[in-house]
Design brief:
Elements: E1 3-8, E2 12-17, H1 24-35, H2 39-59, H3 63-83, H4 89-112, H5 119-140, H6 143-157, E3 164-165, E4 169-171, E5 174-180, H7 188-202, E6 209-213, E7 220-225, E8 251-256, E9 261-264, E10 279-282, H8 289-301, E11 306-311, E12 328-330, H9 334-356, E13 391-396, H10 399-405, H11 412-417, E14 423-429, H12 439-443, E15 447-451, H13 458-461, H14 464-468, E16 483-487, E17 500-502, H15 510-523, H16 529-539, H17 541-544, H18 555-562, H19 601-617, E18 622-623, H20 629-635, H21 639-652, E19 655-657, E20 664-666
Parallel strand pairs: 10-14, 10-15, 11-12, 11-13, 13-14
Antiparallel strand pairs: 1-2, 3-5, 4-5, 5-7, 6-7, 8-9, 8-17, 15-16, 16-17, 18-20, 19-20
Helix pairs in contact: 2-4, 2-5, 3-4, 4-5, 9-16
């Protein structure tokens, strides 16, 4: 015959014969089977009663036995309490009380006899009560109790034995559990220090265990465990997430280790109580900094209300396919120095415009034509119709090069003032240490994308509280390109210590990048008149002719094919004609002769003015004595003389200060000197 299954919550599935429904013997067997787990307490009570009766026959008149039995009772109770140290407090106390009661009755029964005085009543009532208490305990035992015991055992291993861990919130590949520490004995710092040991006990990477303290309590927080590292699988870039959207929408740059998307925001949002931000991208060589930059740049370039000014001392090595999409792109050195000055000039101009149109910060509406009377610069309250002002992203790639060329505070003023002007500064470099970047600049960069680095450099990239919560970019170094931590407004704080990974850009996506750049050039935003005027006033043709001077990857070969192969000076020479006879003076030495007379003071000043005009024509709008070194050698003039002339030109209004000693900004000749 077949077999029936009877399912029980505690005992699982029981298989019994099919005759259990009709045969009395089978029913008795089933009931006996169900009763077996509850029999040991009753058997123990019976055994204690028999043992007490037998012992009274031996020791009822022995004083020495009374002393020995009393000491044995106390010792047995103490051993029970000591042995229950590894169990829960409830079980330990229950066991000790049971042993103390049983041993006390056994001692009294052995000395006085089990039927004397109240001993029979105590045996019947007390024994039954204790046995039933263990039966009730067995019935009330649940899987949650077992789990709690396991959690306590785990916490005990890492030095948090008395901490309380609550019911966990289980999500896909992520478990979050509240933790309550012992009042007056443990703090959140104890959990932070225990995280490496906890990861070892769970046999997961150190970065898979994080702790987020409760900001309102020193002994409460949330423990986050991610059992599987989903970042091991490389995700390739497949295009921007929201082509034609607004820069105010979230920018998708990767995913977290639990599979959820990694977003970043640049402009602020008063409704969400989110401030505008600047971004620091930091990571050692081979950490994936280039891919991280491409993720963010492609998202920015695909939005309709933003322009990007880009500086790259590496000659756009990683970003050449995107060149047409930048509004202004320069290499390092003096061109970047001019761009920095243009940004500084644009900040107050843009701030005035936003204030005049009743914007406390940049909003997407500011990028549209101002047809709303609430955002009008007219005092009569009518719509002004002014052109909109796109958001501006100023990106400084390999910024360590620029900082060395200028100084460590080159970006301080921009970082402190640009956010209110609808400008976001992005600085990318390998090691944001304080010997490269000033503390004021670093403190003004609220957001950071921290990729793998040397362990000693972690503190330069991430705040101390994020490192204390379990973030550890030093564990990756350059072995896991793209792995990162992201700290930024708009991201929940409990996500700051969660590892993420940016998407990878293989060579096959280069055509897609070129298409995106062409789309941005045709359909993206253009500089508003206010920003364009501010930049033109400061750097002149370096800004107005920025597109004409942009590098084209395919144009060089075309120009080379069309260029003449003969020097223009030799174009009229007949190659078949014999060389003329030597003449007197042909054998005179070319070097070591007198270079000629030194120019007069008036001539030298005229030559200096021409040099400034030449710098301006070439787009180099920031100069200093070192830029005149070759010029001084040609004209026999000294650097101190040039320094004096630069100071004189500053007094005359031809030059402006840049904030760095020895560097001057040329005032374009087409603009007033007091601009």
């Amino acid at each position: 015959m077949g077999r029936n299954e009877i399912r029980n919550e505690n005992d699982g599935v029981l298989a019994v014969p099919a005759t259990a429904n009709t045969g009395g013997g089978s029913v008795r067997s089933y009931l006996l089977h169900r009763a077996k787990p509850h029999l040991p307490p009753w058997l123990t009570v019976g055994g204690v009663g028999l043992a007490g009766g037998g012992a009274s026959l031996l020791w009822s008149d022995s004083a020495a036995a009374g002393v020995g039995l009393t000491l044995s009772s106390v010792a047995l109770t103490a051993v029970t309490w000591w042995a229950g140290k590894a169990t829960s407090t409830q079980r330990r106390l229950h066991s000790a009380i049971t042993v103390a009661a049983a041993s006390s009755w056994f001692t009294a029964a052995s000395l006085a006899g089990p039927m004397q005085g109240p001993l029979p009543d105590l045996y019947l009532m007390g024994g039954a009560t204790l046995a039933l208490s263990w039966n009730v305990r067995l019935l009330m035992r649940t899987p949650e109790t077992a789990a709690e015991t396991g959690d306590k055992g785990l916490l005990a291993k890492v030095g948090l034995a008395r901490a309380q861990i609550g019911a966990g919130r289980v999500e896909p590949n992520r478990v979050t559990a509240p933790v309550a520490l012992t009042p007056g004995e443990q703090t959140n710092d104890d959990v932070t220090r225990a995280l490496p040991h906890l990861a070892s006990a769970l046999d997961v990477p150190r970065t898979a265990v994080r702790y987020q303290p409760d900001p309102d309590s020193e002994r409460r927080g949330e423990l986050v465990i991610v059992p599987e590292d989903m970042l091991r699988y490389v995700e390739e870039w497949e295009g921007p997430s929201l082509p034609g959207g607004s820069i105010a929408d979230p920018l998708l740059i990767g995913r977290y280790d639990d599979g959820s998307p990694l977003y970043l925001w640049l402009p602020g949002d008063p409704k969400e109580k989110r401030n505008s931000t600047h971004v620091l991208i930091a990571g050692g060589t081979g950490s994936g900094k280039g891919d991280a930059a491409l993720n963010l740049q492609t998202e920015i370039m695909s939005r309709k209300d933003v322009i990007m000014w880009f500086s790259d001392p590496k000659s756009f090595q990683d970003f050449r396919p995107l060149l047409p999409g930048y509004d202004w792109a320069v290499e390092g050195g003096a061109p970047t120095e001019g761009m920095v000055e243009a940004i500084k000039a644009a900040i107050p101009a843009r701030t005035r415009w936003l204030g005049a149109h009743s914007y406390r910060q940049w909003l997407p509406e500011a990028a549209q034509q101002q047809t709303d009377p609430a955002h009008s610069c007219h005092k009569d309250g009518t719509a002004c119709g002014c052109p909109g002002m796109p958001f501006l992203v100023t990106w400084m790639e390999e910024a360590a090069n620029t900082l060395r060329y200028m100084d460590d505070s080159a970006f301080t003023g921009i970082a402190q003032e640009a956010r209110s002007a609808g400008i976001s500064l992005v600085i990318s470099l390998q090691r944001p240490s304080y010997d490269q970047m000033s503390t004021s600049t670093r403190a003004s960069l609220p957001s950071v994308i921290a990729l793998g680095c040397a362990p000693d450099d972690e503190g330069f990239s991430l705040p101390d509280e994020v490192l204390a919560a379990g973030a550890h970019p030093g564990a990756w170094r350059n072995r896991r390109p793209g792995y990162c931590y992201v700290v930024s407004p708009g991201i929940p704080e409990d996500r700051y210590a969660s590892p993420a990974r940016t998407r990878h850009f293989p060579d096959r996506v280069v055509p897609m990048l070129e298409v995106l750049a062409d789309w941005a050039a045709r359909n993206g935003a253009s500089p508003d008149p206010i920003t364009a005027k501010a930049a033109e006033t400061v750097v002149g043709s370096a800004f107005t002719e920025r597109k004409a001077g942009a590098s084209q990857p395919d144009g060089e070969d075309d120009d080379m094919d069309q260029a003449p192969l003969v020097d223009p000076e030799d174009d009229g020479i007949d190659p078949e004609q014999e060389l003329p006879e030597s003449e007197q003076g042909d054998d005179a030495p070319m070097f070591g002769q007198d270079t000629g007379r030194k120019p007069s003071p008036a001539e030298a000043r005229e030559l200096f003015a021409q040099a400034l005009e030449e710098f301006e024509r070439n787009g180099q709008m920031v100069v200093g004595p070192k830029d005149f070194q070759d010029w001084c050698d040609r004209h026999g003039l000294s650097r101190p003389w040039v320094s004096a002339r630069l100071t004189e030109a500053y007094r005359e209004g031809r030059l402006k200060e840049t904030g760095k000693t020895g560097r001057w900004r040329i005032v374009p000749t087409l603009t007033p000197a007091d601009a």
